[in-house]
Write a structure and sequence with these properties.
- The structure holds 2 protein chains of 2 kinds.
- Chain A is an all-beta fold.
- Chain A has no helices and 11 strands.
- In chain A, strands 2, 4, 5, 6, 9, 10 and 11 form a 7-stranded mixed beta sheet that branches.
- Chain B contains no helices and 11 strands.
- Classes of the chains: A mainly beta, B mainly beta.
Chain lengths: 113, 110
């Protein structure tokens, strides 16, 4: 069974551009979570999608947004990129909300120049 | 003060040693996760705990809800255990938002 897959693995953008990151959860998982790991900082919760709806978001500005598609895959969009958006973006999925074990993807490394 | 504190920040051990990583948190939780992050960033979920103790191979995780403390133990450590170990808690009433510790970097040498 395929695990959580993320694309692209690496992405280089310049300030002001937009970045789109993609995540496919494990088959049957309806919850998708996005996390940011900036250099020198710990993981921070970004967004949670379940059954196609945004259920919760972390302390990030509105230019961080996303969506979840009917097949439960998800996109994370970052608009008006800033240098400090350079980070590893991790996606995780779970079968059960709040009680389910998390399964992580390998991450997408975004570099903003 | 961070809601989740881990100690030590860095740990070097020789192959075969017994290792303990500690995690203390300051909020009521519904679950605590132990995660392993390898160089390159990939993360593996090791354990999810809400009480007691879990064991998987050479890894043991314990949690004391009253003391708001969890430990991750590695028995007979091996160089392939070298990674960053991260504790994360799901606070009660936070609808799946995880708060992460800053991680413990473990290096196991031959």
């Amino acid at each position: 069974e395929a695990g959580v897959t993320q694309s692209p693995t690496h992405l280089i953008k310049t300030r002001g551009q937009q970045a789109t990151l993609r995540c496919s959860p494990i088959s049957g998982h309806t919850s998708v979570y996005w996390y940011q790991q900036a250099l020198g900082l710990g993981l921070q919760f970004l967004l949670w999608y379940d059954e196609g709806e945004e259920r919760n978001r972390g302390n990030f500005p509105p230019r961080f947004s996303g969506r979840q598609f009917p097949n439960y895959s998800s996109e994370l969009n970052v608009n008006a990129l800033e240098l400090e958006d350079s980070a590893l973006y991790l996606c995780a999925s779970s079968l059960q909300v709040n009680t389910g074990e998390l399964f992580f993807g390998e991450g997408s490394r975004l570099t903003v120049l | 003060k961070n809601e989740v504190e881990q100690s030590p920040q860095n740990l070097t051990a020789q192959e075969g040693e017994f290792i303990t990583i500690n995690c203390s948190y300051s909020v009521g939780i519904s679950a605590l996760h132990w995660l392993q992050q390898h160089p390159g960033g990939g993360i593996v979920s090791l354990f999810m705990l809400s009480s007691g103790k879990k064991k998987h191979g050479r890894l043991i995780a314990t949690i004391n809800i009253q003391e708001k403390h969890s430990s991750l133990h590695i028995t007979a450590s091996h160089p392939r255990d070298s990674a960053v170990y991260i504790c994360a808690v799901r606070a009660t009433g936070t609808a799946s938002k995880l708060t992460f510790g800053t991680g413990t970097r473990l290096q196991v040498t031959l």
